[in-house]
Amino acid sequence: MATDYDGVLAPFDADPMQATPVPGAVDTLRSLAALPGVHVAVVSGRDLVTLRTLTEIGDDEPIVLIGSHGAESSSAAVREAMEAAAVTPEDEVTLAELRSDIEALVKEHHSEAHIELKSAAVVVHVRGLPREVGDAAIADARRVALDHPGVKVLKGKSVLELSVSHADKGSAVTALGRHVDAVARVYLGDDVTDEDAFTRMRRPDDLTVKVGTGSTAARYRVADEPAAAALLTRLQELCSAAHVSG
Ligand SMILES: O=P(O)(O)OC[C@H]1O[C@H](O[C@H]2O[C@H](CO)[C@@H](O)[C@H](O)[C@H]2O)[C@H](O)[C@@H](O)[C@@H]1O
């Protein structure tokens, strides 16, 4: 059972570090993870350190954290499966150049935008800015990416992410499913990067859920983060009842 973080477990906030989970949602994941035969993961574009900080899920807990769109994980099995997509020393050099160019761009031309530095990416944030101001910052950031061959450009919600990671959420989450011999897989996501997971989870017993509006390959949809939290609670109740009845 895997869920995305921003826009699913946690409502959006203009300050990325203030985007905290819907009250009770992480405890629901803990209850699910405590059930025999249920494996739980939080999958995010956040880097692993930040994901751990925001979820407050500890290293000693049985919930797998997958960060940087699959490039980082608390699970050795996922790390091994994603080894070919790991960030190389050459990628680190590209990332340092990218950071420097984006910092210069924002400082000189788009001081209203915010930069988030991640272990495998630089993100330009424009949430809350007037549309034309945000669009101009995103367009210029795209141009910076063109100067750095091999950089992946991901357009998210009020963000442009420039990444040196070669991973994707779909590969990471299906690797975890294989590792635990999952017979049915659940994935909740809200953004374009979650579509990689939705398209890879097409078995009859898989349950894929898009949170919010927009086209999707997911089979089902809920309206927003509180509805996603309510769905997780219902799944926990059903799994718990199935366990009790044997
Ligand atoms: O894969 P996710 O867990 O959905 O993470 C995707 C990106 O989420 C974050 O940005 C989004 O949430 C911010 C906090 O609410 C918001 O300010 C921003 O507008 C959203 O796009 C995060 O900051 C990125 O690094 C993640 O890649």
From TrEMBL:
Domain of life: Bacteria
Cofactor annotation: Mg(2+)
Keywords of the record: Hydrolase, Magnesium, Metal-binding
Pathway(s) annotated for this protein in UniProt: Glycan biosynthesis; trehalose biosynthesis
Catalytic reaction list: alpha,alpha-trehalose 6-phosphate + H2O = alpha,alpha-trehalose + phosphate
SUPFAM superfamilies assigned to the protein according to its UniProt record, in alphabetical order: HAD-like
Transmembrane segments: none
EC code(s) of this entry: 3.1.3.12
Family: Belongs to the trehalose phosphatase family.
Annotated PANTHER family: TREHALOSE 6-PHOSPHATE PHOSPHATASE
Role this protein plays: Removes the phosphate from trehalose 6-phosphate to produce free trehalose.
Protein name in the entry: Trehalose 6-phosphate phosphatase
Annotated source species: Terrabacter tumescens
Lineage: Bacteria, Bacillati, Actinomycetota, Actinomycetes, Micrococcales
